[in-house]
Give the backbone structure.
Amino acid sequence: MIPFSPPRIDDETITAVSNALRSGWITTGPRTKKFEAELANFLQARKVACMGSWTGGAELVLRWFGVGEGDEVLLPAYTYAASANVICHVGAKPILIDSKPGDFNVDMQSMLDRVTSNTKALMPVDIGGIPATMKSVQGELPNLISPNNAVQDNLGRPLVFSDAAHSIGAKINGTPAGSTSDVAGYSFHAVKNLTTAEGGALAFYNENLDAEAVYKWFMKMSLHGQSKDALAKTNSGGWRYDIDEHGYKCNMTDIQAAIGLVELARYENDMLRRRADICSQYDTAFGEYDWAELRPTPQGVESSNHLYMLRIREISEAQRDNIIDRVLASGVSVNVHFMPLPMLTVFARMGYKMEDYPNAFDAYSREISLPVYYDLTDDQVDQVIGTVVKAIQKVLG
Ligand SMILES: *Cc1c(COP(=O)(O)O)cnc(C)c1O
């Protein structure tokens, strides 16, 4: 079986984790701090805060910005449930936006059109590694009517928080994609481009933020609200601390950071290149067939190639499912990204209806995600292509 997206774990990763374990320091410490500094450099961010997951970090962002009951956050219908769950966790209302026609991403203008006086944040998602925001839209946002905390008061308008879970390394005209947002959230979950097993990071871009103070707030609130982290408490006289807010628990461990440091060091010149190479082999092969609808390639964008999302023209959802069954039976793991949120019980129960998001449904119903990962060989790429083509031709008749 060709797997879908196994992590790249080799001796270098294993040695790095062993060294972290042997160092005597396994929770947030020197490796996490080093990883944050290297990520900030790679992402050209003012500051990076590592987190236990994208989800932990994203919920903290919403709480930091004072998003809660009665507030609305805009996001695509076409995304993973985590994007919307965090909005529900803080008690706000997710406002789902349909995809662009023929695309997976939302059109930022259609998101801007839905901003109301209740909108506290916009959360575009870079589906598959292609940035949703080609340029900053901050200048087009209205002022917040009634800021309810100091951070909102300082920004004065809704926050642009990019769900960049797929797009580490993606660029717009040579610049890291996240820099169009105020804050970008990355995921280092096991299937993501760059992994720490579980993990995530927040990159702060907004020029008007006191980045050091913001970073300190995220460190404190990701660790119970404690005024000192575990490492600082080991210093002499460091046992005394205070807690002035009910903090959360979503810090990154040094074991995770040890994996991340190895991943990041070989990410841009090795792992990202291999992903791009695999995806262009798919583009070339499927480009031969009239039934194939290749991924969007917006001008000036360098995708992080997180997913290779193939669509087949004019097929039904049932035909797509049939193709997937055949491909799986032939020993190739494929997936669908994503079931739009209204298709999931919890969101249907909240009243979202799939028929209100026709473009998202169209993209989903004709989509198959193919394996993309560092260790996938050219022979395996050929095997994937052969298997997928055969299954599609069989179903199309
Ligand atoms: C994976 C993913 C997340 C969640 O990331 P975690 O690190 O698992 O919390 C959020 N949004 C999108 C689009 C994702 O694919």
